[in-house]
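Review the following:
>
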Amino acid sequence: MTMQRARRLASVVVVASLGVAGLSACRSEPSVAAYVGDSERITVDRVDAVYDEVHDKLRAAPPAQAGADGQPAPSAAGPVNVPITRTDVLSLLIGSDLIEQVATAQGVTAPADLQEAAIAGALGLPADSEYAQLYAKWRGLIAALTNKVSAPATPTDAELKELHDSLVAIKGVDPAMPFAEFKSQLAQSQNMPIVQRAVAVHDQIIKATADSKVRVNPRYQPTHLPVLDTQDQQTGRLVTLITVPIGPNDQVSPVTDAR
């Protein structure tokens, strides 16, 4: 009897192991960069295509650089400086789907004028690239959602620290100012409601990430997108102030990196 129970137990263990192995296999395809929901997959090829388009357009028409006579200097042959990464691309591809879900739930739509050219310029990207267009729509929907917020959220210290560090980087805050003093001044400023509304949108996207069971290949981690940004007055570039994680490892199980 004891031997029979041991055999039955061994069979159960084997079946369970096969079940786990099967589940792991279906969520570890090397060609998949991320899963969104039970059926949607964003492939590595899709990520590469968006990134390569930016690379190729920048190589074909690099940003003009002024020569000694003030005229645009011919670009030197060499590596192309692409101001985005493949992780940025994947973040935006996932985020584009999530933001649509949140916008639909909140009853908002993107503005008619997404200012693609201006935003592309602030990102250092070709205006006709897919990435720039997706980013412009993301930013437009973030703005619409932020304006719709009726119950602002209280930012965490981690979010405020991210804001603080981002502002220090562009000399928007004195780096010698203690963080506690920064928090106190922000709480009494007209900027605090803006931060609170951005954090509320941040929380909406986090919920959509969990509801959609987003799974991200670890090779692309960490994935995140801006919910609050500003324009650097010195360079004209967009500067991210507060981000929302897209499928973070501490919230969802990543796919297996099969490289």
In short: The helical segments are 2-26, 44-60, 86-106, 116-123, 130-148, 157-169, 179-187, 192-211. Residues 2-26 form the longest helix (25 residues).
